[in-house]
């Protein structure tokens, strides 16, 4: 092998640089099923925002003379036992479910990330105390913990939000702590400590940004978990209180009419299934797109 050949080989064999945004979009949108369910999520958000204009009827207006009607041109999904339009209540239920899911997950992210970064960065007694609290919360299944909190606080939207936020916080805290334990040993963190940067600046400017990728993926997945948990709590009578439209409560009310009018339960139940499946598929695609092991290889 000549000297000239040896000098040119590293240049020839170097992998081409890949635009990060292009790589992300290529992986994230590389499957048609992801685009389909992503469109469903966008449509759900649109329906939740503009429910007042999309719903054909007032979801709380009762008309007992037209109760339990089958689907027709006037009422596409029929009416419930109080004569309320099922389609309108499903549309308004979209707003309630997305609101509960997003607010509860947001609170859980803030609390979990804060606890995780403090625990992982400082270690010692602080890490021990926070970790034991997180372990105690993780000892209970999430839905059981939320159900217990809801039973203590009583039914209502904010009760559901608080219960779900407490139930979801340990997963974010545990994941963030693990990420921080890895990142804080990096050379750039040690260099920041050497030049005298404060702990707050290091955590905010260097540790947190490098730990966000798995947190973003977990947020997407837990949105579906939160919506499903809200529907479960509402189904059991501990979640959203009547007459407010909620998918879980609608499934509970419609189960008495499964033989003669199954659409009363199937319509809101199908919405729960669709939105949870959409969040899981989009979250899975987001995980693949943010995986650093794929960088430069696609």
Please give a structural write-up.
- Helices cover about 70% and strands about 0% of the residues.
- With about 300 residues, it is an all-alpha fold.
- It has a domain at about 50-55 and about 80-270: Orthogonal Bundle (MetI-like fold).
- Mean pLDDT is about 85; it is low at about 10-15 and about 295-298.
Q: Layout of SSEs?
A:
Layout: H1 3-13, H2 20-28, H3 32-49, H4 51-54, H5 86-122, H6 124-138, H7 142-153, H8 157-183, H9 187-194, H10 199-207, H11 212-235, H12 247-254, H13 263-290
GO biological process, one term: transmembrane transport
Domain ABC transmembrane type-1: 94-283
InterPro entries: BP-dependent_transpt_permease (IPR050366), MetI-like (IPR000515), MetI-like_sf (IPR035906), OppC_N (IPR025966)
In percent terms, what proportion of residues is strand? under 5%
* Structural class computed from helices and strand pairing: mainly alpha
Query: Count of DSSP helices?
Result: 13
* Radius of gyration, CA atoms, in whole angstroms: 25 Å
Largest sheet: none
Q: Give the oligomeric state.
A: single chain
**What is the level-2 CATH architecture name of the domain at 48-54 and 78-270?**
Orthogonal Bundle
């Amino acid at each position: 092998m000549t000297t000239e050949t040896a000098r040119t080989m590293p240049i020839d064999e170097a992998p081409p640089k890949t635009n990060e945004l292009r790589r992300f979009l290529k992986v994230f949108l590389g499957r048609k099923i992801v685009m389909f369910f992503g469109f469903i999520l966008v449509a759900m958000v649109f329906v939740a925002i503009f429910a007042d204009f999309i719903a054909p009827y007032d979801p709380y207006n009762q008309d007992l003379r037209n109760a339990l009607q089958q689907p027709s041109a006037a009422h596409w999904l029929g009416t419930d036992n109080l004569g309320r339009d099922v389609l309108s209540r499903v549309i308004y239920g979209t707003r309630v479910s997305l609101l509960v899911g997003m607010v509860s997950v947001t609170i859980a992210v803030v609390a979990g990330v804060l606890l995780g970064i403090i625990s992982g960065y400082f270690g010692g007694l602080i890490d021990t105390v926070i970790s034991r609290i997180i372990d105690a919360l993780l000892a209970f299944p999430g839905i059981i913990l939320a159900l217990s909190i809801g039973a203590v606080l009583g039914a209502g939207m904010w009760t559901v939000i608080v219960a779900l936020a407490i139930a979801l916080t340990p997963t974010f805290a545990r994941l963030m702590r693990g990420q921080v334990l890895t990142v804080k040993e990096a050379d750039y963190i040690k260099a920041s400590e050497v030049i005298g940067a404060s702990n707050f600046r290091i955590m905010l400017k260097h540790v947190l940004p490098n730990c966000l990728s798995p947190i973003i993926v977990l947020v997407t997945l837990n949105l579906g978990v939160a919506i499903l948990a809200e529907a479960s709590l509402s189904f059991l009578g501990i979640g959203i209180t009547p007459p407010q439209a909620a998918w879980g409560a609608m499934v509970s009310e419609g189960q008495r009419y499964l033989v003669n009018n199954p659409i009363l339960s199937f319509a809101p139940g199908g919405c729960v299934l669709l939105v949870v499946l959409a969040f899981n598929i989009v979250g899975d695609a987001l995980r693949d797109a943010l995986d650093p092991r794929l960088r430069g290889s696609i």
